[in-house]
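[Help] Beginner question about ligand-bound structures

Sorry if this is basic. My supervisor gave me a protein sequence and a SMILES string for fe (ii) ion and asked me to "get the holo structure". I don't really know what that means in practice or what format the answer should be in. Inputs are pasted below exactly as I got them.
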Amino acid sequence: MLRDVLLGDGVALTPAGIRFANPRTVKEMKDVMLKPSESSEVVYEVFRDVLPTHSNALRVDLTVLRPGLLPDGEYARTHGHKHPEGPWGRPWPELYCVLSGNGTFLLHDDERAYLVEVKEGDVVGVPGEMVHILVNTGDKEMITCNYVSKLFKSDYEYLKKRGGPAIFITKEGIVYNKNYNVKEVRTCSPLPLSVDELVLSYSFKPPEEEWLVCEPYI
Ligand SMILES: [Fe+2]
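Answer (accepted):
No worries, everyone starts somewhere. Holo just means with the ligand present. The predicted complex, written as structure tokens, is below.
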């Protein structure tokens, strides 16, 4: 169904209707970059709520991330955020699918960082307590969809307070952010958490918050 989405310039015709892009520019990311920049260039666009779902609490978004480098030498990437805890005491999870392109998911907390190399068709389960950032290390647009609850607000301040993510992925290699204690970066395969584990985490939610009731695969 997501393959039926028609992407235009800042607009998308989706199974849920016409959606307009939420663009993120370089200067809107200056607090989380290696070196701040006032560039107005758009790095990525998000189209929200692009699929009709079986649950009012579930949202499916599309992200279109351009290739190339940011002015600070990083590969183009999303701002990044983490999720708060749900009422069942664990952070809200999220599921990402890569629709086209290839790149890297950066998942990290204060001490751990994981790089998940992804290509078209891969699925990544995101533990909500970890910062998640999509990095386009390929040479064409990267398009992903994400399945996430509408019942919480993502935390962007965590990254802003620390001057960006735990590591910066640049053309020259990884640059560590001194505001974290990450000493080792691990690479792992898509789905670093199994779907079973994700389902398990969903099982902690109250029944009225059954936000992942539609098929999570494209
Ligand atoms: Fe998220």
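A couple of things worth pointing out: Confidence is low (pLDDT under 50) at residues 192-218. The chain has one domain: 2-202. Feel free to follow up in the thread.
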